[in-house]
């Protein structure tokens, strides 16, 4: 089934890359901005800053009061938010189509003139908010440290993906208004951004609005390049970390280096994840949850990192009565089975059929269309790739998945991050040694 | 530099909720079809009028267990084969139950709808509930209960409801059942629940997306002709508060870096005549990012990542709650602000700006809520579950616009009860106990997690 959405693109003189996709089925429109900056761009001693900065973008700009961005969009009947990831930060709103100009104007005001609105008091409050976000989503959540521990375990010290996205309390405390100014001037420039608009709008009118609001913003002076992020295809040895945590059920995250998002081999990796851990018909669910009953839940996914290397992650939560060592053995056995026997065309078909439905489903929402356009434009300067995804997936064969498995699922490319209930660590001696508490 | 003048809105294009067709099929089964011409995709949502509140006493959890066990084997296929067959069609069957109803749902490319719907019919009309799979699902629910003990948000929600409702009320126990009740469930309990409740007169089939009414009727009649032909009687629900006084319950988490808070009391049933004014009142109090509670606790004081309030709308009176998580050392200070905000919205009328923020938002966001076939199907399911009028979604925005500041004030005075507030703190008792005792929010009780 060939689903294609219409796409127009253009550049402003200041370097802003704009993509448009019309769809008039409902009177709503999505505005989506990706800035090509994420936690990977943070300097040492400032972990968490890219995300803290995202919070500051809702604290007003030259012509917008503190929190007024939220209020104006909600008053207009719109939804909005922002999010920060390792390699990008995005801001988005979906509004009734007659409010498109408001959404564009608000985004332009903060891209052009954020700094006049920045104060020490606002920074201090948002620093507290973010510290509470860290407590809420990381420190006070079972397995909440998974992302930062996995980054630490699987990337070398010097690598931009190695450090925490939410940041350490210490680094958050150190962030200053001067950091805000520098970060803004370096990264929040039109030539480091993509603007996507999807939904019910008139193309000519919208182009004029974009030119009027974003056109006067000056181009940036360039950003410091990231170091080369390429890594060998495998870790080179087994990696393992045991984390005693306030949990009742052990949970294993088994990670592998995988081909970067966008590479042809990435699609085989993604299909392999679906075949292994997407829904109840997947290998891991069938074997570990249904047949052997050692796991309460099992899944697999890829992070979709576009620089250097991606990570492929198998995520299995043990049943209460399953010994921790057994959990590891059972999951490894499934991976070994893949290595020895490979996958069948039927399994690949199942994965492809589900991915195809998800791709079509994701086109239903204007916000998701705009976000997809921004992503492909930011990473590859090619928003048209959104229409090529179904085809790229269909080109994946059992042979390609088996090639991926043979290269990447080997012993020397496995990193185990194992969460164990605190009280069990003392009981199981091998774990105590691994966790360094014996 | 950037244009300094805020743009004015253009003229709004009209929108209406998708037109839908409704009819009663043989055996009293209802069919609702909302054609949405956009993408070649269809959502099928089957709603059965039976939920946790229909469980026999002592069998708490059987509704959710039955919903999940449906997928574990039919006359012709075992559970693994069923999952495989749905997934080869690019879909997977989701099923579940809440307080009022059970749902079974798929979203599928329209060219694969006939095969997927036939399979869904097989699942719904010929389940065999294999003993081994029922026992496995029980064990998975018990794992989930263990997980909840260590997850502060879920733990706070669950304990809050147990402190709100009298023990005899079904609402006082988790909708998925307790460790005790789930352990006692047998395959025969599931079978009996299914036979008595999953009948044609209690079933509504909803299709939304790339489909028309005639084709939907043909496919649904063929797929579900095996349903037991009967209706189910309505069942009364016992609801009473556990305590008439204010109380503070500390659920101990020694060393917790944050306190997870719930403050509230028993709310209103969904079909209450003050539904719209109460919803707008809640939006101003804590329902929006720009609400009083969030702006106060997050943006003015930095106590939290977010604070909100909600009514959990059920057929019976579900909870009203303020929910947030705050740094441990400001627990009592944050609670004081929450109490002040509840008092303030009862004391004086909200401003015109606050009213319009809530009503403009609720009115304007309406079309954005129904972008997907799944959202349209869910909206139609709510009509059925709560017995709302057929034109509910057509008159929704007018009803919102009709809410005045006076009506909001009246809703706050009638439906917020400061004297009945129950407070739950999942946090470190060593840090929060003394300040909470000084707060004057009721007797302080300490519980283990």
On the 0-100 scale, what is the average pLDDT of chain A? 95
Distance between the termini of chain B: 57 Å
CATH topology of the largest domain in chain A: Cytochrome Bc1 Complex, Chain A, domain 1
N-end to C-end Cα span of chain A: 58 Å
The CATH architecture category of the largest domain in chain B equals: 2-Layer Sandwich
- Give the overall form of chain A: globular
Structural class of chain B: alpha+beta
Order of strands, widest sheet of chain A:
1-2-6-3-5-4
Share of residues in strands of chain A: 15-25%
CATH structural class of the largest domain in chain A: Alpha Beta
Please give the structural blueprint:
The complex is a heterodimer of chains A (438) and B (449).
Chain A lengths: L7 E4 L5 E6 L5 E8 L13 H8 L11 H8 L3 E6 L4 E8 L3 H13 L7 H20 L6 H9 L14 H6 L2 H11 L5 E7 L3 H12 L24 E7 L5 E8 L5 H14 L5 H9 L3 E8 L7 E9 L5 H18 L3 H18 L3 H15 L8 H6 L3 H11 L6 E7 H6 L1 H7 L3
Parallel strand pairs in A: 2-6, 7-11
Antiparallel strand pairs in A: 1-2, 3-5, 3-6, 4-5, 8-10, 8-11, 9-10
Helix pairs in contact in A: 1-4, 3-8, 9-12, 9-15
Chain B lengths: L20 E4 L5 E6 L5 E8 L13 H8 L9 H10 L5 E4 L4 E8 L3 H13 L5 H19 L2 H13 L14 H6 L2 H11 L5 E7 L3 H12 L22 E6 L5 E9 L8 H13 L4 H9 L3 E8 L7 E9 L3 H17 L4 H13 L8 H13 L6 H10 L3 H11 L6 E6 L1 H11 L3 E5 L2
Parallel strand pairs in B: 2-6, 7-11, 7-12
Antiparallel strand pairs in B: 1-2, 3-5, 3-6, 4-5, 8-10, 8-11, 9-10
How is this structure best described in words?
The complex is a heterodimer of chains A (438) and B (449). By secondary structure, chain A is of the alpha+beta class. Chain A folds into two domains: 8-214, Cytochrome Bc1 Complex, Chain A, domain 1; 239-435, 2-Layer Sandwich (Cytochrome Bc1 Complex, Chain A, domain 1). Helix content of chain A is 44%, strand content 18%. Chain A has helices at residues 49-56, 68-75, 100-112, 120-139, 146-154, 169-174, 177-187, 203-214, 264-277, 283-291, 324-341, 345-362, 366-380, 389-394, 398-408, 422-427, 429-435, and strands spanning 8-11, 17-22, 28-35, 79-84, 89-96, 193-199, 239-245, 251-258, 295-302, 310-318, 415-421. In chain A, β1 and β2 (17-22) form a beta hairpin. In chain A, α3 runs parallel beside α8 (203-214). The longest helix of chain A has 20 residues, at 120-139. The relative contact order of chain A is 0.16. The mean pLDDT of chain A is 95. Chain B is α+β, with helices and mostly antiparallel strands and 449 residues long. Chain B has helices at residues 62-69, 79-88, 113-125, 131-149, 152-164, 179-184, 187-197, 213-224, 275-287, 292-300, 331-347, 352-364, 373-385, 392-401, 405-415, 429-439; strands spanning 21-24, 30-35, 41-48, 94-97, 102-109, 203-209, 247-252, 258-266, 304-311, 319-327, 422-427, 443-447. Chain B has a six-stranded mixed beta sheet, sandwiched between helices. Chain B has a six-stranded mixed beta sheet with strand order 9-10-8-11-7-12, sandwiched between helices. Chains A and B meet through α2, β5, α3, α4 and α10 of A and α2, β5, α4, α10 and β10 of B.
């Amino acid at each position: 089934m060939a689903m294609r959405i219409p796409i127009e693109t253009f550049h402003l003189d200041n370097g802003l890359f704009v993509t448009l996709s019309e769809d008039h089925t409902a009177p709503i429109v999505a505005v989506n901005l990706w800035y090509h900056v994420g936690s990977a761009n943070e300097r040492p001693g400032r972990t968490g800053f890219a995300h803290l900065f995202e919070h500051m973008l809702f604290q007003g700009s030259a012509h917008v009061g503190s929190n007024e961005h939220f209020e104006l969009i909600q008053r207009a009947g719109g939804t909005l938010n922002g999010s920060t990831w390792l390699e990008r930060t995005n801001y988005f709103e979906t509004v009734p189509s007659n409010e498109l100009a408001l959404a564009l104007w608000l985004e332009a005001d903060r891209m052009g003139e954020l700094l006049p609105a920045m104060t020490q008091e606002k920074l201090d409050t948002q620093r507290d908010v973010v510290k509470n976000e860290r407590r809420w989503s990381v420190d006070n959540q079972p397995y909440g440290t998974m992302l930062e521990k996995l980054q630490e375990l699987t990337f070398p010290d010097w690598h931009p993906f190695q450090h925490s996205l939410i940041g350490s309390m210490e680094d958050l405390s150190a962030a200053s208004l001067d950091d805000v100014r520098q970060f803004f001037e370096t990264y929040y420039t039109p030539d480091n951004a993509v603007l996507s608009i999807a939904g019910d709008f008139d193309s000519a009118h919208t182009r004029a609005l974009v030119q009027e609001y974003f056109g006067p913003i000056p181009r940036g002076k360039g950003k410091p390049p990231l170091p080369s992020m390429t890594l060998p295809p495998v870790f080179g040895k087994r990696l393992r970390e045991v984390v005693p945590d306030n949990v009742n059920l052990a949970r294993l995250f088994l990670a592998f280096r995988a081909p970067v998002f966008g590479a042809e081999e990435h699609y085989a990796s993604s299909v392999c994840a679906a075949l292994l851990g997407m829904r109840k018909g997947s290998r891991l669910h069938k074997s570990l949850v249904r047949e052997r009953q050692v796991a309460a839940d099992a899944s697999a996914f890829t992070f979709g990192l576009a620089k250097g290397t991606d990570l492929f992650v198998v995520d299995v939560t043990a049943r209460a009565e399953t010994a921790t060592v057994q959990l590891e053995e059972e999951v490894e056995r499934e991976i070994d089975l893949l290595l020895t026997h490979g996958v069948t065309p039927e399994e690949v078909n199942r994965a492809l059929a589900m991915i195809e439905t998800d791709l079509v489903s994701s086109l239903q929402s204007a916000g998701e269309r705009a976000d997809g356009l921004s992503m492909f434009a930011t990473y590859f300067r090619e928003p048209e790739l959104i229409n090529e995804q179904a085809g790229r997936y269909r080109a994946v064969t059992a042979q390609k998945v088996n090639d991926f498995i043979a290269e990447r699922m080997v012993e020397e490319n496995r990193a185990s991050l194992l969460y164990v209930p605190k009280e069990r660590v003392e009981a199981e001696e091998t774990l105590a040694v691994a966790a360094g508490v014996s | 530099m950037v244009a300094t003048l805020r743009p004015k809105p253009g003229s709004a294009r009209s929108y209406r909720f998708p037109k839908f067709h409704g009819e009663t099929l043989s055996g009293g089964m209802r069919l609702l079809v909302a054609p949405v011409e956009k993408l070649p995709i269809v959502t099928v949502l089957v709603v059965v009028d039976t939920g946790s509140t229909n469980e026999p006493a002592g069998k708490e959890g059987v509704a959710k267990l039955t919903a999940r066990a449906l997928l574990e084997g039919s006359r012709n296929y075992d559970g693994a084969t069923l999952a495989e067959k749905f997934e080869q069609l690019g879909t997977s069957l989701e099923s579940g139950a809440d307080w009022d109803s059970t749902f079974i749902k798929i979203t599928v490319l329209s060219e694969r709808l006939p095969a997927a719907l036939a399979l869904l019919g097989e699942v719904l009309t010929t389940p065999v509930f294999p003993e081994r799979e029922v026992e496995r699902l029980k064990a998975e629910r018990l794992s989930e209960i263990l997980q909840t003990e260590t997850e502060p948000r879920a733990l706070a929600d669950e304990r809050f409801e147990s402190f709100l409702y009298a023990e005899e009320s079904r609402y006082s126990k988790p909708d998925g059942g307790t460790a005790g009740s789930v352990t006692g469930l047998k395959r025969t309990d599931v079978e009996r629940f299914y036979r008595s409740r999953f009948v044609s007169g209690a079933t509504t089939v909803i299709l939304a997306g790339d489909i028309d009414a005639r084709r939907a009727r043909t496919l649904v009649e063929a797929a579900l002709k095996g349903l037991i032909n009967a209706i189910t009687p309505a069942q009364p629900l016992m609801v009473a508060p556990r305590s008439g006084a204010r109380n503070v319950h500390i659920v101990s988490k020694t060393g917790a870096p944050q306190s997870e808070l719930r403050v509230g009391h028993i709310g209103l049933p969904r079909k209450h005549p003050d539904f719209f004014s109460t919803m707008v009142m809640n939006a101003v109090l804590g329902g929006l990012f720009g609400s009083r509670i969030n702006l106060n606790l997050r943006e003015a004081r930095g106590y939290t990542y977010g604070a909100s309030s909600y009514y959990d709308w059920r057929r019976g009176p579900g909870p009203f709650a303020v929910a947030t998580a705050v740094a441990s050392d400001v627990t009592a200070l944050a609670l004081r602000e929450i109490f002040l905000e509840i008092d303030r919205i009862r004391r004086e009328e909200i401003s015109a700006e606050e009213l319009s923020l809530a009503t403009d938002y609720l009115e304007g966001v309406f079309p954005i809520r129904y972008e997907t076939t799944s959202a349209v199907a869910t909206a139609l399911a709510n009509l059925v579950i709560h017995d709302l009028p057929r034109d509910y979604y057509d008159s929704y925005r007018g009803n919102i616009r009709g809410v005045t500041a006076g009506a909001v004030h009246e809703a706050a005075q009638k439906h917020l009860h400061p004297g009945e507030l129950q407070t739950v703190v999942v946090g470190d008792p060593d840090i929060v106990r003394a300040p909470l005792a000084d707060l004057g929010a009721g007797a302080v009780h300490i519980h283990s997690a």
